[in-house]
Structure formats: C-alpha cells, structure tokens
Amino acid sequence: MNNANDVLVHEKFEFSVPYNFDQDNPEFNIFKKFSSENYHNSIVKKYQNVNIATNSVVFSYFNIIRETCISELSHKKYQTGYKFFLKYIFPQINFSPNKRFILITDEWSTNYYHWHLIALHRLLVLKQNNLIQDSILILPKRYQKLKFISQSLEKFGIKKNQILYLRRKSHIKVKELFFPLTYQNNPVAFWEIKKILLSNISTEVNLGDKIYISREGSQLRFIENETDFVTLVEKYGFKKVLMEQYSYEDQISICNNAKYIIGPHGAGFTNVLFMKKGGFLLELASKPDEFKLITDYYKLACFTGINYLYQECEARGKIPDFHEGSLFVDLNKLEKNLQLMLKNYV
C-alpha cells in the first residue's frame, strides 16, 4: 500500500554545529560531516498472507521481508540460513481473515531510544493514515514488562484489547498486515511525537532546571570519577538523577522542566525529546569509531531546537571503547563547558 505520501525527499534539514564547536579541535571532526540531511515522508506497505515472528521479522514461506529486518546483514543471515525457519515451524497462531494487523517494532525496539524515535514514528504514520482504529498491534511478549511502552501506546490511542503479544519462538499468520517504512530522522515526526507524549501528563515532577543523568550502577559508559564530577556539577546547581528510579511520566515531566541536561551517552538522553526549545544538552562520551558514531542525540537535539554541546572523555574499563567502556571526565574541560552553557540560555 503506497499512499499519497510517496514523495522521496520531503525537505532538507540544516544542522548547526555543537554549541562548543572548535574547528581546530579534532574531537569535533565527526560533526563536520553533518551540514545537512534530506528527510523523507513515509510509505505504508501492505503485506498479504504473511507470518510475523516474535522478533518482528515478517516472512512468507521461505522469503524474509527485507524491510522488517534491522539491516542487510540481518536479512542475509536469516534468508541464507535454516535456523530462523526451523525456529518458527510451530507453534503458529491463526486469526480470522477479517482482522487487520499492524506492526511497528523490530529487533531493537525494546531499547528506549529505538522505541521512541523509530517504533512510535511508525505508529504515528499509521495514525495519520487512519490505520490504528480497529487494528490489532502485534508485539513480542517481553514488551509487556516495559511500562513506558504500554503508557506511550495509550497516548497514541492504542487500547489494551488491541494488542496481541507473541510469546517466545511463536509466530502468527495473518491475511493483512500494514507496516510503515519510515526514515529514521524526521524532525516533523519528532515534534508530533513529542506533542502526543506531552499531552495529558498525570504527574508534575520538577527536580529543577539543571539535571545530571547519571549511569551509576550501569556496566557501560558510567563515569569513573563520578564523586568529583558530582561535586563540581552540584556547585553549578545540577541535581544527580537516576532515571530508572522514576516512572515514565515522571521522566517526561522532569525533562520537560529542565533547561540544562548533562550526562554520558546513553538511552536516558532520549528524554531530550521532552525538553522545551532553547535548552542545552551536554553529552559526554569516549572517542567513537567509524562504526559507532556519536550522532543520535546530536541530531535529536538539532531537530528539536536544543543547543548541543559535546565533550570527549578518556575511555576506561576492561573494554575501553565507545560502547563498552567507562568514562574518565576531564573536570577542567567540563567546568568550561558548564560555564559556557549556563551563561547563554535564552
């Protein structure tokens, strides 16, 4: 099903460089590559007589639908091997042919970032095409444990009786399935998602306008010298926050009330989506490589009108790389960035 939205290029977005950008500092080289980017409207595909696996991959007989795989590599792995198909020989669920099914997830959608900016983007497209009402949404059973998923779905108008959870290693055969093909970075869509998720907030939690999102307790990308780090940021009025200690709606409220957010690269930065335009985000990360670029939250900040700052840190830990390692923060450099961001809030 290709809608009237089938225009390839919708608009070009011009990125601004980080607020603390230094042309001569090599740690900012990664941001020189992103001057502008085309973003596209979405296409809703209609598949008939297909199977949906519990990892959200769609297949028909021995043909894997490429668009439902997270990458070409993943598609090739499933298509050329036999293990995928053996796993889903049975059990199988069959439904009345009159039922209409929708799919928004992929193999990474339990990640807080991917859920908000990819899965909910697909749901938004379905909503805009009037395909939510009277449809059944297919989700893997493990999604039941994630409250932010059920609560965000409710805001989009998905009722509990519209969700079908697939247990592990099961699959469902359906006559009609709608799946949106969305471009990952679409600022127009992000603003609409933000508007929906900020509507009817049932709680008001304000921890101040300066928030430090800590990864204390995490095994990845936590700050090694956090005690000294916290002492410094508290001097500038920042409050340390462990997001996992708050409900989903509390997190939305906390970040909507924050003017300044700082912290290590991680899923908690997805909450920049809820900040008011004109705020500041300082991201701390070790040097990325060409396969693990540090641009997700930079782009999200640009798309939503947030001033972005970046500080490269020393990687430590057993595997001292961008994803696996911990961080050692240069406090002198941090203080200069704090001073820069705090005196320029509009």
Summarize the structure.
The protein is an alpha/beta fold and 346 residues long.
Query: What oligomeric state do the depicted chains represent?
Result: single chain
In whole angstroms, the N-to-C terminal distance is: 45 Å
| Poorly predicted residue ranges | 1-9
Round the mean pLDDT to the nearest integer and report it. Answer: 88
CATH C-level name of the largest domain: Alpha Beta
Overall radius of gyration: 21 Å
Mass-distribution shape: globular
Topology-level CATH name of the largest domain:
Rossmann fold
Number of DSSP-assigned strands: 16
CATH architecture of the largest domain: 3-Layer(aba) Sandwich
Order of helices and strands: EEEEEHHEEHEHEEHEHEHEEHEEH
- How many strands, which pairing sense, and closed or not: the largest β-sheet? 8 strands, mixed
Fraction of residues in β-strands: 15-25%
Structural class, from helix and strand content? alpha/beta
Helix content: 25-40%
Question: How many individual domains?
Answer: 2
Q: How many helices in DSSP terms? A: 9
